[in-house]
């Protein structure tokens, strides 16, 4: 099934519809999805990201890695993070999604769109506004080495005044990953100022961050754009 427009344009349509009709964004997204022939927005998004198969990141990661997955909307960064969790679960590893973006139901729909059948045990889904570095490390305490956790997404960790600055939270996650051997991956937005005509793949300088993160906060970074993916070591 071919979409009538790229996913980022459909997202824009949904936002405009929500504003014009004075309805919640999720209802507007559901209408857009229905117009495109999908039962739910999450299924539409999963379909859009299937255009590019980036394979698996898991064999290229080491225990204790801090991985950054970054791209502009609609280029497959969330799919890559979910695929990482599914691959980890398929190997019998503990895998956990900490989502500040999706509800538990929406996340499960996206997992189901990527894998049929789902591996056992399925990735754990934590969807609560309480997610922060301390919440994540407390939840993962006692996890075996090689556990994989994905945070969706990095910028939202910095939105609540009651939590420490993003730089401090990233340091907490980095220290925890090194000590425990948990692989920690954070999905991140790329700033709108990024110009694909100047660089085919974004870089750390293109991250959309309200506050800076410490140098070498991540051990590896995976940048995506227009079907191209680049994994690089940062240390």
What is the structure about, briefly put?
By secondary structure, the chain is α/β, with parallel strands linked by helices.
Could you walk me through the main structural features you see in this protein, from its secondary elements to its overall organization?
This protein has 7 helices and 7 strands; from the N terminus they run αααβαβαβαβαβββ. The protein has 235 residues and is α/β, with parallel strands linked by helices. The protein folds into 2 domains: 7-39; 58-233, P-loop containing nucleotide triphosphate hydrolases (Rossmann fold, 3-Layer(aba) Sandwich), CATH 3.40.50. The protein has a 7-stranded mixed β-sheet with strand order 3-2-4-5-1-6-7. The termini are far apart.
Question: Mind sketching the topology for me?
Answer:
Blueprint: H1 7-21, H2 25-35, H3 41-49, E1 66-71, H4 77-90, E2 95-99, H5 104-114, E3 124-126, H6 133-140, E4 148-152, H7 166-180, E5 183-189, E6 220-225, E7 228-233
Parallel strand pairs: 1-5, 1-6, 2-3, 2-4, 4-5
Antiparallel strand pairs: 6-7
Domain SF4 helicase: 57-113, 148-208
Keywords: ATP-binding, Helicase, Hydrolase, Nucleotide-binding
Organism: Thioclava litoralis
């Amino acid at each position: 099934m071919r979409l009538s427009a790229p996913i980022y344009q459909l997202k824009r349509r949904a936002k405009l519809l929500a504003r014009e009709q004075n309805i919640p964004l999720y209802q507007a997204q559901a209408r857009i999805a229905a117009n495109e022939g999908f039962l739910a927005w999450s299924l539409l998004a999963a379909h859009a990201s299937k255009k590019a198969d980036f394979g698996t990141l898991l064999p290229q990661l080491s225990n204790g890695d801090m991985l950054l997955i970054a791209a502009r909307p609609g280029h497959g960064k969330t799919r890559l993070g979910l695929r990482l969790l599914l691959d980890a679960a398929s190997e019998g590893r503990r895998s956990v999604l900490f989502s500040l973006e999706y509800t538990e139901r929406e996340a499960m729909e996206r997992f189901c769109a990527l894998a049929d059948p789902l591996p056992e045990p399925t990735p754990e889904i934590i969807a609560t506004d309480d997610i922060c570095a301390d919440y994540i490390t407390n939840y993962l305490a006692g996890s075996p080495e090689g556990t994989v956790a994905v945070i969706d997404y990095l910028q939202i960790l910095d939105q609540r005044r009651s939590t420490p600055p993003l730089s401090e939270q990233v340091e907490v996650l980095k220290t925890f990953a090194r000590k425990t051997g948990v692989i920690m991956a954070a999905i991140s937005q790329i700033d709108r100022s990024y110009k694909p005509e100047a660089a085919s793949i974004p870089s750390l300088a293109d991250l959309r961050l309200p506050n800076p993160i410490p140098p070498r906060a991540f051990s590896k970074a995976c940048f995506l754009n227009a079907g191209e993916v680049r994994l690089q070591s940062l240390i």
